[in-house]
Amino acid sequence: MTGLIAELVVDGRIPQTPALAPNGHLLCYVLAPTSQIGDHLDTALWLADIKGDGVWRRATADTATESRPRWSADSRTLCFLSDRAERGTAQLQRLTRTNHVVIALTSWRAGIIDHLPLADPNLVALLAEDEPTEQDTRRVQDRDDAIVVGEREPGARLRLLDLRTGHVTTPNVFGDRHVVELRQRPDGGPLAVLTQASADPDYGPRTGQLHLFDPTTGTAEDLGPVEADAHSLAWWPGEDGWHLGYIALTPPVLQAGTAVFDLAMDSCVRRNRTADLPMCPTELCQTGAAPLVVFADGLNATLARLDPDGPTPLSQHPGHLDDLTATPAGTAIAAVTGTRYQPANVHVGPPTGPLRKVTDTRPELNGVTFGTQRPLAYRAADGLDLDGLLVLPVGKSVSDGPSPLVTIVHGGPYGRYADCLQLFWHPSAQWLAAAGYAVFLPNPRGGQGHGHEFAASVAGRVGQQEWTDILTGIDLLIAEGVADPDRLGIAGGSHGGFMAAWAVGQTDRFRAALVSAGVTDWGMLAATGENGQFEAALGGSTGWEGIGPHPHDAVSPVSFAGRVRTPVLILHGAEDTNVPLGQAVYFHRALRHFGAEHEFVIYPREGHSIQERNHQLDFLRRTRSWFDRWLRPADDGADN
């Protein structure tokens, strides 16, 4: 058996966005590396006839970033985006199955953001920003390029590509609104178009509107506003006419609690079709009949059909079920899923299951011994049912405890831990289990998988009951003899980083902490983060609501920096726009002011997620080294 080293983690390849052809025979997916070497992330398309020889063949051999494969209605051609001509600027390409020749279909100077082959075989709908004008170019050259916020902001526009002529036209519809998503009615009718007032992620998600667009006449019809963060459009026919559905946040909560909304086109009646369900919709998948819905269901996933009386469960799957694609009849699906000890791969089968694994993109992990992973179910202090995962040190059982325990809190907070392989470049359970740690992965309230009320319960109250939910789980593992109470660590990224920073200001129980891209001041995040209105809803206030004290001050870790006695490792990307670097700088300066033991590491060129291979390697090794230094596990011989 093979020991787990950092290179095995970061040098993997991940299957993404499978596209099942309408004939149900051909399947394409994107294969992406876990880490980036150089200035660009090189991906590739792979194709197979899953009802023929089943042999996977690389369809694109160029060095490029390739994405968004979509089949034509006759399954003969595949369109996708690629920046093979100019790195960083994607254009639409077409691959013909008969001769495997790739032809560029666009040369739009601003690049193509998304595309949708239409029922008319001569038309493709495109999403793209406006091309720069000669005046724009002169202004850049002359440095006369002052930015007036709100004017000429970039946004995706609907374009139509005529495959017969190669001409791209821009219908005069939707004004300056940013187009988010398109979906054509299964019978070849109009396109449902989702727009926002702006591409600004702070402002746009609250300004969504639905429209109909007729590609034949070029005319549009407004259907009215939609709930915040709407996405995943799907059409279906009903006895009362056509319906249009989407997933969005349940009003009035801004940061969590998704639902499937159903708009009956003839009556204009809108309904929440998943209200009061103890699970959360993550994807809608259009078919020629009732759409399929993927739910985050506790630690696992449920696939359902959206029938007139509500969702009808069809099958259950371990962990996640992502990137669902289906044939028009809805009788065959493909998706990305995995197991506790197998990484995610493309699986195919009927929606009722079982699904068959058709790829093996990480064979290098086949000989690795992983720590035993088991689901946890327990109750919070107020009786709320909670779940999570426990991963034991490699080669050990519960009876071999107690072990040093690291608790890793997920992000979001509207994320969750699912019962799948916990191995990533960021702090992950199997990486630490290989070094002799037991790892607790809690799903406290505020997360996904248990319905709207559970998800919405932390709005304006972050760090309160979600914190005691985590402590309750830790105490349970101590009582069971799994965890050594004198060797506890805590870690997390994004909202999980907030929880780690919060923890060390509330208790001295932890001997080491890791704060990765963590929130330390909610008021500053509402003012500078790219999702400010969502962050204000979580923190409970903004800094411009009077002279204070503000509610967000009481739930910001920096307010408690003077209490910190736990050594803290702070890791942050220099170009993070989600949780800007200033959050880490603020916490670092506060800890330095009070003389608290800590280390602060900044990764140049990185955003909210670390991409570059050397940075990922450093992240993994530094994480282990930090906990080894302060928790001193009994097994000091683990590979690094």
Automatic annotation (TrEMBL):
Residues 429-632 form the Peptidase S9 prolyl oligopeptidase catalytic domain. Keywords: Hydrolase, Protease, Serine protease. The keyword Protease applies. Residues 343-362 are annotated as: Disordered. This is Peptidase S9 prolyl oligopeptidase catalytic domain-containing protein. The lineage of its organism: Bacteria, Bacillati, Actinomycetota, Actinomycetes, Mycobacteriales.
